[in-house]
Amino acid sequence: MSRIQTLVATMNQVDHSLVEEMNIQTDAIIANQSNEFSHQRFNHAGNTIDFYSFSERGVGLNRNNAFMRATAEICLLADDDIQYYHGYPSLIAKQFDERPDADVVIFNLDEESGTRFQITEPVRVGFTNFMRFGAPRVAFRRKSVFLQGVLFNLSFGGGTEISAGEDARPTVGTTGLDPHGPPPNPSCHDLHVVYLGTDLGRFDELARSGPHPIKPSSERWIAYIGTLGHSYDLVTVIDAVRLARDQGADDLRLIVMGDGPLRNKFERHAKEKEVPADFLGRLDYGSMVRRLLMCDFAVNPIVAQAAGSVINKVADYAAAGLPVLNTQECAEYRDLLESYRAGLNCNNEDARDLSENLLLLHRDDQLREELGANNRRLAEEQFDRARTYLELMTLFGTPA
Fold first, then answer.
1. What is the DSSP code (8-state) at residue 250?
2. Whole-angstrom Cα distance, residue 333 to residue 302?
3. Selection from 9, 318, 332, 7 nearest residue 145 by Cα
4. Which stretches does DSSP call E strand in 12-99?
5. Strand, coil or helix: what is 132?
6. Where in the chain is the domain with CATH 3.40.50.2000?
7. Residue-by-residue pLDDT tens, the chain, 400 positions
8. What residue ranges of the chain are covered by domains with CATH 3.90.550.10?
9. CATH topology of domain 4-147
10. What is the C-alpha separation between 379 and 370, in angstroms, rounded?
11. Which of 225, 256, 231, 260 is nearest to 82 (CA)?
12. Considering the entire predicted model, what is its pTM?
């Protein structure tokens, strides 16, 4: 039996390819929310993989389903868009061996947009700083957590009425909240909505520093930033760009900043459709910011029924002042775009509808500029961490 188990929360998997795509090197439990109940056990590179499918919804419930079946000394929480470095089990074991009194160890994630808080030296996690760390950064001693009765809250997170924050107590989104109705948790008497957003001051500083990429005057760029994983529908975006080019918008180029397990698939699809696309991989945050500012549109293409509400990338799109073409089903973000008039909501997984909205922005410079300016206002009013973090500290009664 492996000392470490990787506990993966995922959806709609139809085969076992995810294990290879994520580069899993330990025993693992895959908790796959689909439309059936099943269990398969198989060997992958000498490790035991338990692949469970559940006809249920809710990311907190999914993580609990994996955790209650775990058997290893140390468990590592995972999302399906993670790609692990070779040798990660040894790295995790080393940290626990060096800290025998630690029940939980939190790691950094290397990512393309770089907005997540990075740990530079050992620090204790407590009430004032726990909001910086999401579930996929967490490894823990199974027995210690189990004996304390710690589980994910089933009232929060993707697939529930409040589609964010299953790994934290504060409410970070409004989805499902009725301001005139009872709170979803009887112990909660006063609900506050705070978007964690982005560091707008740092974004603007990086925008002014360093070289900006050279953009041909004959091109218009469509930006996507983020992981190239199962929750992100780049296939529909590529198909929509192909349709728009066929309608005369032959200056469109897709700019993809990020990496992930489906990068090769998306690159092949772009070549097959003859869509000009630059897959740039992971960029440092400053390079991403300066390239994002050269773009004309941004896309937020999330697959149907995906967990998540107001996700990190949309805060960067707003900071850049780009109009957003959004296919995400989450009513919370769709309402924000409509109320601020900061982008266009499109049908999910509908390339033709996405193409028509893309053409609308492509042909109307005034509309594109207006929506982009409104999105920047959304960033300043709702997503700026200089404001939102201060509000959180005030709510917690902690001096800023």
1. T
2. 12
3. 7
4. 27-33, 38-44, 47-54, 74-79
5. helix
6. 200-385
7. 679 999 999 988 989 999 998 999 999 999 999 888 999 999 999 999 999 999 888 888 888 888 889 999 999 998 888 888 899 999 999 989 998 888 888 887 776 655 566 666 776 766 555 556 677 788 888 888 887 777 776 655 554 444 444 444 344 444 444 444 444 455 555 566 777 778 899 999 999 988 889 999 999 999 999 888 888 999 999 999 999 999 999 999 999 999 888 999 999 999 999 999 999 998 888 999 999 999 999 999 988 877 667 777 899 999 999 999 999 988 888 999 999 999 999 999 999 999 999 999 999 999 999 999 999 999 999 988 888 777 766 766 655 4
8. 4-147
9. Spore Coat Polysaccharide Biosynthesis Protein SpsA; Chain A (3.90.550)
10. 15
11. 260
12. 0.65
Whether the Cβ atoms of residue 266 and residue 235 lie closer than 8 Å to each other: yes
Q: Which two tokens stand for residue 184?
A: 């979803």
Q: How far apart are CA 326 and CA 333, in angstroms?
A: 9
Q: Is 329 helix (H, G, I), strand (E, B) or coil?
A: coil
Sign of the Cα torsion 89, 18, 116, 282 reads positive
Hey, which CATH number is domain 200-385, 3.90.1150.10, 3.40.50.970, 3.40.50.300, 3.40.50.2000?
A: 3.40.50.2000
Q: Are 274 and 250 in contact, with CB atoms under 8 Å apart?
A: no
**In contact, 200 and 385? CB cutoff 8 Å:** yes
Looking only at the bridges linking them, the beta strands covering 38-44 and 252-257 are: unpaired
The position carrying tokens 């009232």 is 155
Residues shown for the chain: 400
Which helix (H) or strand (E) element contains residue 373? helix 365-378
- Tokens 């790295």 map to which residue? 91
Residue among 260, 204, 180 nearest 228 (CA): 260
